[in-house]
Amino acid sequence: MHKNDTITLIKLLNKELSIPVYQRPYEWNRTNVFVLLNDINRNYNNDEEINLGTIIVCKNKEETFDIVDGQQRLITLSLLLKILNENIKINLLDKQMLCVNKTEKLIRNNYKTIKEYIAWLGKNDNLDNFYNYLIHKVNFYLLEAKSINEAFQLFDGRNSKYKNLTPVDLLKAYHLGALPRNYPLKNLLTTWDKNIKEEFKIDNSCNKIEYLYNNILFNVYNWSLNRDIKKFTKNDIYLYKGYINKNENNYSYIKYYKTNDKNIYQMNKPFEAGEDFFNFTNYYIEMLDNLINYYSLKNRLEIDENDKRYDLNLRFINYLYYGALLMFNDKFGNNNKNNQFIEDFIYKYSIIHRIKNKSVSLQTLNHYVLSTKYNFFYECNNALTVEELLKLEPEGNVNAPTRSEKLGEMREDLWKKLK
Questions:
Q1: Cα atoms found within 13 Å of the Cα of residue 314, Cβ hemisphere only
Q2: What Cα–Cα distance (Å) separates residue 158 from each residue in 22, 37, 72?
Q3: pTM (predicted TM-score)
């Protein structure tokens, strides 16, 4: 790998840059653009050079440079230069429009945002001076990796304050790097992009892949070991890096998992790095989708309580409910004669926490799971048969301090219906 070399914006854009197929789409919004423009303008007004972080590139077989990290900044800055000088030739913009799906709307919107900013700037300053500043005094650290595997190893989520890589981004990059060099990526990336653009119908706060790892798999992993849950960060992605299928890996548990059927996954067990990660992700997204469609916590609760005044607020309870359902179905399947009992148990186990508390947070949820007589996740993780889980009973005491006597009565009535 070449050392960190400082390079100006114009020299960087004059290189033959391209966006590889494995890159995430361009996704900067108006806020990201304003952060970048304000940072540049502040340094411009102080007559100081500005360094906008690291750009990672890797030479491909066409002898052009794939942008492994930095495309969000470079595309935005290319739009800025094009607005200031419509005659400037920027190859990256022409290639970008063709090779990244679903980005045209964002690019058009950001183009308008930048034009508005430049119009405001032009009222108070000479735009020729600002253009020359961009050309000569906006710099980057350029890292040219020798191989794509080496490039992926450089991902650490800190390359840009403007749009940090998420743990899911890092996992995607890592496992793409573990694939054979000539692996056909089209179908794999099409499915990945589809899940990135969709949300589970129970929560629209993030896409399906982030929801699966941030709110389900990572929570289940910690709860099943009687550990506190926490935010899923880049420091935790080692849990989902899998193992490299090479002879030099002599751990006994690796040898054991190498002998298993690759079409069968267990959510807390290792898998082989590369293709298996994408199959693992798709497997659990499909399972979770099926569970959400079949078991509606909200609908069942409304039928039981028959009172729309009750504050459902099920966002965090869903982590508990669907996480427990996913763990049970993943381990024991859905064709056991005792499954209905377990499903009823999980329903009561989850909703009792909502009944007992005026408000629910990750902290109260975590305390509930780890402080009840039976931690379902821990018990399920260690059980060898479904029968071992039949002894479990959700806590039935829902008497909790409340400012509203009427709310307390509603909780008691609901608990009676659950029982």
A1: 20
A2: 19, 19, 14
A3: 0.69
Q: What is the pLDDT of residue 159?
A: 46
Long-range contacts of 209-216 (CB under 8 A, 24+ apart): 209/168, 209/281, 209/285, 210/166, 210/168, 212/281, 212/284, 212/285, 212/288, 213/167, 213/168, 213/171, 213/240, 214/167, 215/319, 215/323, 216/284, 216/288, 216/319, 216/322, 216/323, 216/326
Sort strands 5-8 and 138-145 into parallel, antiparallel or unpaired.
antiparallel
Lowest mean pLDDT among 10-24, 107-121, 226-240: 10-24
Q: Is 123 left (phi over 0), alpha (psi -120 to 50) or beta?
A: alpha
**Is the distance from CB of 89 to CB of 78 less than 8 angstroms?**
no
Q: Under a CB-based contact definition with an 8 Å cutoff, are residues 307 and 411 in contact?
A: no
**Distance from C-alpha of 58 to C-alpha of 398, rounded to nearest angstrom:** 59
CB atoms near residue 91 (< 10 Å):
15
CA R_g for the chain: 26
Task: Please state which of the ranges 23-27, 78-82, 104-108 shows the lowest mean pLDDT.
Answer: 23-27
- Cα–Cα distances in angstroms (integers) from residue 86 to residues 79, 306, 311, in the given order: 10, 63, 56
d(CA 222, CA 280): 19
E-only strand ranges, 255-362: none
Mean of the per-residue pLDDT values of the chain: 81
Q: Where does the pLDDT of residue 312 fall: very low under 50, low under 70, confident under 90, or very high at 90 and above? A: low
Q: In 3-state terms, what secondary structure has residue 59?
A: strand
Residue among 87, 84, 82 nearest 97 (CA)? 82
Look at phi and psi of residue 141 and say left if phi exceeds 0, alpha if psi is from -120 to 50, else beta: beta
Residue 212 pLDDT more than 90? yes
Of 251, 253, 271, give the one whose Cα is nearest residue 261: 271
Annotated domain spans of the chain: 5-164, 197-292, 295-418
Name the nearest CA neighbour of 24 among 135, 160, 169. 169
Q: Which band of pLDDT confidence, cut at 50, 70 and 90, is reported for residue 314? A: confident
9: pLDDT confidence band, cut at 50, 70 and 90? very high
Across residues 175-180, what is the average pLDDT?
82
Residue 286 belongs to what H/E stretch? helix 275-294
**List of residues 6+ apart from 147 with CB closer than 8 A:** 58
Q: Strand order of the sheet with strand 65-69? A: 5-8, 138-145, 50-59, 65-69, 17-18
pLDDT of residue 74: 93
